[in-house]
Structure formats: structure tokens, C-alpha cells
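C-alpha cells incoming
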């Protein structure tokens, strides 16, 4: 029967020997060539690695105490998992740098909280939108608040260089020829907030979710007005024509995550909450000290004894972490009295983070580990403050800060000097030279200083115990009587 296969066989029989040999090895030669010549998706699968460029910033990608973090990182991680490849993140320290590398095709994707704009769309292929954001004009409360762009007069306005906001301003200058602004070569919009806070600029344009995350660190800054409505956020790809299958994979992932509610959840975990550091008032502390602390104080004292820590310190840390709430959960996945991350809890052998005793023990051990890993030259009490900073942002970032303190002529063994430079880890001209990159240094300082403050209030409470007949009952001096603190249990 003359089937197709038979025909091929017959033809094969009349081929010369060399051609038969070539026919056997040809498919083998073609496999690697297919990966070389295939599209971007083939190349990613072939090398087993997806390369993503992101802005090193708190809203996109950074290293925290448990490793890489940030919304864009989390999203890129999902894609790498879907493709079954490793994820390699390249941090960019300015938007210009990011688009240059993308243009040269040195990365597969740019995932960096980027707005979809006409200019970019003309140059780079992009995915579907995964979220939206609103560009906002931010000003310093108490100064003149402009209501629109034509009302900014000679107020100094700053935006990120190469940003969508710089593009919009250029477009608006056609109708507002007097419009002036400054472009800052940074990747992180926090640099703009720093300019406002230090009085070097009076206005800045920042995307809504980025401002929301940073606002608690800059309580004086407020939104003056929205510059536009919702704008789409997309991932951009290099300007080759071979991205189509990868783009479909990404769009498919975004759609599936949207349908399952996963995308909203991830967004909420990163932007839905506002850090409460600067909002914790001593009023709340006094209240909780009366209502909640007595229940946990014996346990805190027991764990503090086991780990040779003073109980007021452990109480202050657990207040700062969870307000003494053993079932506290944060959308970013930290849980319990000491707000441990899952990997940390696993490392510490904790099976239930919501168990107050386990959580306190885990936190105490973790804190002691940090202390042990600091160099011997760091003496108490600075050793404790630095261990706390490391507890908050990770030892790597603390080491960077100590090195930076030294470079600036400070003493890396003094908390007061390290505290001065920690906020610099948020500024790209500093963190691009450090080993571990961007860190929320300012927040770490607030964290440590809050704990020191709470600890001293607790110590103050404890005074009557050490002074058999105090001349004044110190409790009476407190704004709210602390009747329910059971002093005999101390
Ligand atoms: N979304 C902005 C952009 O696409 C970056 C962030 C900002 O400048 O606030 O350029």
C-alpha cells in the first residue's frame, strides 16, 4: 500500500549513505539551534532562567530580612514558577537605566510599577494591565496647596527622570509654556519625598500606591490634587518581534490571578496596609499596658529569663510588633506576638506562630542570634539597639549601614552614628554602592527608637518595686492610671 510512510521509506532507501547518516544526526543538531533561534520564551526555557529588571524600591523589589521582597518581585516569581524556571532580578537605579537595558534586550521583562504611556508603547511591546494607579501631586502640609497644574506658580516641582510623570509634564507644557520642573535621576519615588521633606522641593508627582506606602514615614506630606484618573500598569518587553508567546503566557497568568482573586490579594498584601510606626501614640501604649500586658506579662517574664533578656525589652519588642496580640496577622504574611515570617519560624523550629509562648521564644532567640552575630567590638547597650535594627531589616543591611557610618567618619560601633546613616540606605546614590541594596532604613530607626521609648516607660513602671518606699508613687504621674497592671506579678 502506498502510504505516506511507505513513500518516505522508499525514498530513504535510495538515499546515499552519507545522507542517511546526516538524516540521523540532523534532528540532534537542530535541537539546540531551535533554542538559539526560537523566540524569547524558548530561550528562557532553554536556559532555565527568566531575567527581570525592576526598580530597587519598597514598592517594587528590595531585600528584607527574609530575602527578596516587593510586589513586582512576587508577581515575577509567579511567572517564573509557571514557566518552571529560576528567577533572576536585575535591580535598576534609575528609570533611564531600566529602559536602556530593556532596549538593548539584556533582560526579558521590565516589571517595575511602570505606567502605560503612548511614548513607551511606541517603543516597547507590553503586557495587559495588571493594576492601575493615579498620579498625584504631593505637597508639604502647612505650605500653599495648589489645586491644579496651572496653579503651581513658582513652587519647585520634582519628578523622577524618565518617568511617566516627566512625559506628561512635557506634553502639558504645550498648553502651559511656563511650566518648570526638576527631574531626579533615581528609581525610587522616596527620593522625591526626601526632597520635599528637606525643603529642597515643594511639590512632587508620585503614583498613588507608592505615596500611600511611604506616607507614614513622612507625616507632613499630603496629596494636593490628582493629576489624572486611573492609569494602567504594565510590564514592558524588549523591542524584538519574538515576544508574542511570552506576552501571552504573562497575560494568561494575570488573567488567572485576577479571576481567582489572587492578584487583588497580592496587591493588598503590599499596598493595602499602611505601616503604623509613626502613628502609634503613647496614649495607645498606656491603654494597652493597662488592658493587655497583664495577661501576657508572666509569660514575657518567663521567656525573658530563659533567654537572658530583660523583660521590659522583650515586652517593648512584642508591643512594637503586635501590640501584644498573639493572633496578629499582617497581609505580608508575618504573624503572631513577635510577627515572625514563616521561613524564620521554620528556621527556629516553631510550628505554631499564633501560640504566644512559641512566638515569644522564637523572637527572643532570633534577637539573641542577631546579637551573637554582631562583631565583638559592639558593646552594650548599642549592641542591643543594633540587634533590634537587624531584627527589623536584616543583618546584611545593618552591616551595610555600619560600613557606611565608618565611611562617613562615624563610629560603626555606636548606635547613634549607625542610626544617622540608616536612612541613607533608601537613597540610590548610597544603596547602589552597598552590598545588599535598598533597605527601609528610616523605618528601622523608628522601630528601634520606638522600642527604646516603650522599654523606658516599662522600666519607669517598674521603679516602685525596686524602691521599697518611693517618695512619690510614680503611677500617679502617668496620664492614665495603670490600675490593672498587676505589680505583684512583676
Ligand atoms: N509609574 C512611574 C512610571 O511609570 C514610576 C513611578 C513614579 O515616578 O512615581 O514612570
Amino acid at each position: 500500500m502506498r502510504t505516506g510512510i511507505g513513500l518516505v521509506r522508499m525514498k530513504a532507501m535510495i538515499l546515499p549513505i552519507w545522507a542517511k547518516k546526516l538524516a540521523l544526526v540532523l534532528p540532534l543538531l537542530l535541537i539546540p539551534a531551535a533554542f538559539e533561534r526560537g523566540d524569547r520564551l524558548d530561550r528562557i526555557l532553554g536556559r532555565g532562567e527568566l531575567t527581570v529588571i525592576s526598580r530597587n524600591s519598597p514598592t517594587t523589589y528590595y531585600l528584607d530580612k527574609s530575602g527578596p521582597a516587593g510586589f513586582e518581585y512576587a508577581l515575577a516569581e509567579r511567572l517564573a514558577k509557571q514557566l518552571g524556571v529560576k528567577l533572576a532580578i536585575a535591580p535598576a537605579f534609575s528609570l533611564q537605566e531600566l529602559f536602556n537595558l530593556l532596549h538593548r534586550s539584556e533582560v526579558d521583562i521590565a516589571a517595575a510599577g511602570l505606567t502605560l504611556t503612548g511614548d513607551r508603547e511606541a517603543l516597547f511591546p507590553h503586557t495587559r494591565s495588571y493594576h492601575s494607579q493615579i498620579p498625584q501631586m504631593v505637597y508639604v502640609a502647612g505650605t500653599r496647596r495648589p489645586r491644579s497644574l496651572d496653579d503651581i506658580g513658582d513652587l519647585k516641582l520634582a519628578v523622577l527622570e524618565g518617568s511617566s510623570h516627566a512625559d506628561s509634564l512635557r506634553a502639558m507644557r504645550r498648553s502651559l509654556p511656563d511650566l518648570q520642573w526638576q527631574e531626579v535621576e533615581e528609581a525610587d519615588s522616596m527620593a522625591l519625598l526626601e526632597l520635599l521633606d528637606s525643603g529642597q522641593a515643594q511639590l512632587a508627582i508620585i503614583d498613588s500606591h507608592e505615596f500611600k506606602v511611604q506616607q507614614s514615614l513622612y507625616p507632613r506630606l499630603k496629596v494636593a490634587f490628582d493629576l489624572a484618573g486611573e492609569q494602567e500598569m504594565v510590564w514592558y518587553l524588549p523591542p524584538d518581534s519574538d515576544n508574542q508567546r511570552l506576552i501571552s503566557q504573562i497575560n494568561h497568568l494575570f488573567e488567572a490571578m485576577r479571576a481567582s482573586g489572587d492578584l487583588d490579594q497580592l496587591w493588598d498584601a503590599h499596598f493595602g496596609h499602611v505601616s503604623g510606626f509613626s502613628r502609634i501614640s503613647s496614649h495607645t501604649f498606656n491603654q494597652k499596658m493597662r488592658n493587655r500586658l497583664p495577661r501576657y506579662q508572666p509569660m514575657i517574664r518567663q521567656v525573658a529569663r530563659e533567654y537572658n533578656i530583660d523583660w521590659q525589652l522583650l515586652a517593648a519588642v512584642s508591643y512594637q510588633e503586635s501590640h501584644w496580640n498573639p493572633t496578629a496577622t499582617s497581609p505580608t504574611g508575618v504573624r503572631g506576638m513577635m510577627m515572625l515570617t514563616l521561613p524564620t519560624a521554620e528556621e527556629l523550629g516553631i510550628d505554631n506562630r499564633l501560640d504566644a509562648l512559641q512566638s515569644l521564644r522564637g523572637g527572643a532567640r532570633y534577637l539573641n542570634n542577631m546579637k551573637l552575630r554582631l562583631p565583638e567590638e559592639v558593646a552594650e547597650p548599642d549592641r542591643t539597639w543594633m540587634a533590634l535594627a537587624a531584627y527589623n531589616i536584616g543583618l546584611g543591611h545593618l552591616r551595610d549601614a555600619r560600613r557606611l557610618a565608618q565611611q562617613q567618619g562615624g563610629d560603626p560601633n555606636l548606635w547613634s552614628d549607625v542610626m544617622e546613616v540608616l536612612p541613607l540606605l533608601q537613597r540610590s546614590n548610597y544603596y547602589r554602592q552597598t552590598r545588599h541594596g535598598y533597605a527601609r532604613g528610616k523605618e528601622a530607626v523608628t522601630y528601634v527608637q520606638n522600642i527604646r521609648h516603650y522599654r523606658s516607660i516599662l522600666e519607669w513602671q517598674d521603679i516602685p518595686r525596686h524602691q521599697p518606699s518611693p517618695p512619690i508613687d510614680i503611677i500617679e504621674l502617668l496620664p492614665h492610671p495603670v490600675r490593672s497592671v498587676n505589680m505583684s506579678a512583676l
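note: The longest strand covers residues 49-55.
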